[in-house]
User: Which sequence fits this backbone?
């Protein structure tokens, strides 16, 4: 399996940074544009402005008459008339904003290209209405670029080691990984037969010591969004919307939302809380990874068949970056971020 | 920009007691990061601290029951004998493991320390080149690890020129005056210096009335291995009887710091000098108080003012000690 990207040198003329140089994979060094980023949970955006970071740019979020707004500057500074908006806001200082799935999405790119149809589909979250119960959503920081977190999610074998107490260890009868992709997304489907179920999961409602497990990670490269859907059979499903806001090459912010239904009250209340255990466990590995992917001249990674999704991810990312370097920010005909993915995830729609 | 320094030869990077056959220990010598662990035969093993799969430190992983080092991220497993990737646990039985090996380092144990051999194998001496230190653990031994924010070279030089900046024994002051020039004994650079009891808190040995005393009841003897700076420090009476001792194993660590692994004990038993000072030292250790400490927060102003002295001999010796020498690399 070939892992490294054999694309020619790609240089960011805007920032002088480079993401992929020759054979090197150096995530976190290119800001992909023309995409919707779920920058905050809707309930966090109120009349009082909050400050978030996207690709090292400050973004201020607040509501005016109930309508969410996102701007490059604090509303007080905007009101003074002394601030000049940049290229990403067409000089107005305001980013295009849309509210869906109880998130405030901001458009990062040319404002003229901001179309709502490009917001990724999340079939298991209600498009509008009241927020889900408070325990179902929250935020975690990862001390690495968002691409490393996406790679982490595309290679769920890591859960057998890093999260074995929660998800179960590597004992199984068969473990297969399938990969699909287009020019904007990579999807990893993992099917495991007779996986060991740890005591914690049995307590939460998986009624067997062994169960089949199917997990799908649908990754949007531009926006950092990851739509996850896992299911134990027998057992309950874990729909997890896992967007990664690329704050900088050192930090990514995960504004997550679970929507666990059809499970015991213990599972509905308890499983989402495991994010605060699983997230730091992942960060324990990804934080020391990050500088080794930022450094130049590192040796190429070695891969096994379980890395097919990561390899595809790096390849699709290289092509996407190359196109954007050449000034092409369009979506190719094979890609439609907003298309219905309920069938791909094998999950019911809630809207 | 400073060139990275490649350290060669045998370096004490871990205390014997730190190693287990369950969890590896991550250490660093200069820019080289190493994961050390004990295999199923209790032998120390040292491998490059980087999984070739996703570049995660292997020191965050674990040791398998059969004595191999397993990455904690995706379970890739390596043989400490040669660095070979031997297992990817999720693969089905009979599936081929990618051919891959990571850097493997020779190890040995001596003086209660685990030494790791850095540099190219052809350039390095055998483990017999490691010099035996005179330190002998007492009945009650104290241990510790400190990271001192000074480079390895400056740390060892300060240990020679102004040991009070670097470490201390409880109730003992080190004087400024060396007792003679440094000399080589069994390959170790040996230096004696005057010392005083200080149970009453007299103050600095070089400023108070102690400075002009005709005779001194104690001396500090340091015996230093020329390249690594591993040192045995002994507090002795005038006749050379050792009252308290420590072993300092120092190695260059990350960001220009120095990792100092130390162990110390007070000598007890027949033949040991009596008197208030030794008795107090023994009493302290019985109460569980260490008789020794390394100053992890070194006084920068005092260090800057420290004049070169016996360290000149050490700097010259360390330069001459090939092949156990430091080498500049591009």
Assistant:
């Amino acid at each position: 399996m070939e892992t490294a990207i054999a694309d020619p040198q790609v240089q960011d003329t805007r920032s002088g940074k480079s993401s992929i140089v020759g054979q090197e994979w150096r995530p976190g060094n290119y800001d992909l544009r023309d995409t919707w980023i779920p920058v905050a949970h809707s309930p966090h955006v109120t009349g009082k402005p909050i400050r978030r970071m996207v690709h090292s740019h400050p973004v201020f979020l607040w509501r005016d008459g109930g309508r969410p707004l996102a701007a490059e500057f604090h509303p007080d500074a905007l009101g003074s008339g002394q601030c000049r908006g940049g290229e990403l806001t067409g000089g107005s200082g305001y980013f295009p904003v849309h509210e869906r799935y109880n998130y405030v999405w901001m458009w990062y790119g040319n404002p003229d290209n901001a179309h709502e149809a490009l917001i990724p589909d999340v079939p298991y979250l209600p498009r509008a209405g009241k927020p889900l119960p408070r325990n179902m959503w929250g935020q975690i920081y990862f001390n690495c670029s968002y691409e490393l977190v996406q790679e982490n999610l595309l290679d769920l074998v890591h859960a057998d080691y890093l999260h074995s107490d929660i998800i179960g260890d590597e004992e199984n009868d068969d473990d297969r990984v399938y990969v699909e992709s287009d020019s904007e997304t990579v999807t990893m489907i993992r099917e495991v037969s007779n996986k060991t179920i740890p005591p914690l999961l049995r307590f939460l409602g998986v009624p067997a010591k062994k169960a089949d497990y199917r997990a799908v990670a649908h990754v949007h490269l531009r926006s950092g969004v990851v739509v996850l859907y896992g299911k134990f059979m027998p057992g309950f499903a874990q729909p997890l919307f896992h967007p990664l806001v690329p704050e900088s090459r050192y930090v990514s912010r995960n504004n997550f939302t679970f929507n666990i239904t059809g499970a015991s009250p213990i599972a509905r209340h308890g499983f989402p809380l495991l994010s605060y255990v699983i997230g730091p466990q992942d960060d324990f590995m990804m934080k020391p990874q990050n500088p080794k992917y930022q450094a130049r001249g590192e040796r190429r990674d070695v891969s096994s068949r379980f890395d097919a999704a990561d390899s595809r991810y790096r390849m699709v990312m290289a092509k996407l970056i190359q196109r954007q370097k050449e000034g092409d920010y369009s979506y190719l005909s094979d890609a439609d971020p907003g298309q219905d993915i309920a069938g791909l995830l094998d999950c019911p729609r809630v809207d | 920009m400073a060139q990275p320094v490649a350290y060669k030869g045998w370096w004490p990077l871990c205390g014997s007691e730190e190693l287990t056959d369950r969890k590896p220990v991550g250490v660093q010598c200069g820019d080289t990061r190493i994961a050390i662990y004990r295999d199923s035969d209790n032998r120390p093993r040292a491998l490059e601290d980087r999984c070739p799969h996703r570049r995660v430190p292997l020191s965050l992983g674990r040791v398998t029951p059969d004595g191999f080092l397993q990455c904690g991220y995706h379970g890739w497993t390596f043989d400490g004998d040669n660095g070979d990737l031997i297992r990817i646990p999720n693969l089905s039985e009979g599936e081929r493991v990618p051919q891959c090996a990571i850097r493997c380092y020779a190890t040995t144990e001596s003086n209660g320390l685990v030494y790791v051999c850095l540099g190219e194998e052809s350039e390095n001496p055998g483990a017999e080149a490691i010099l035996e230190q005179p330190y002998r653990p007492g009945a009650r031994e104290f241990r510790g690890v400190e990271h001192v924010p000074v480079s390895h070279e400056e740390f060892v030089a300060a240990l020679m020129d102004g040991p009070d900046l670097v470490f201390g024994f409880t109730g003992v002051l080190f004087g400024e005056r060396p007792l003679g020039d440094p000399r080589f004994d069994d390959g170790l650079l040996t230096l004696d210096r005057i010392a005083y009891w200080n149970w009453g808190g007299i103050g600095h040995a070089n400023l108070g009335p102690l400075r002009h005393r005709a005779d001194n009841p104690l001396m500090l003897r340091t015996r230093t291995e020329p390249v690594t700076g591993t040192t045995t420090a002994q507090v002795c009476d005038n006749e050379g009887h050792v009252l308290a001792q420590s072993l300092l194993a120092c190695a260059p660590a990350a960001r220009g710091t120095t990792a100092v692994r130390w162990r110390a004990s007070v000598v007890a038993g027949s033949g040991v000098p009596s008197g208030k000072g030794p008795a107090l030292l023994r009493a302290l250790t019985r109460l569980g108080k260490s008789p020794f400490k390394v100053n992890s927060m070194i006084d920068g102003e005092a260090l800057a003012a420290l004049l070169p002295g016996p360290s000149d001999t050490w700097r010259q010796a360390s330069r001459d000690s090939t092949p156990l020498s430091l080498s500049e690399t591009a």
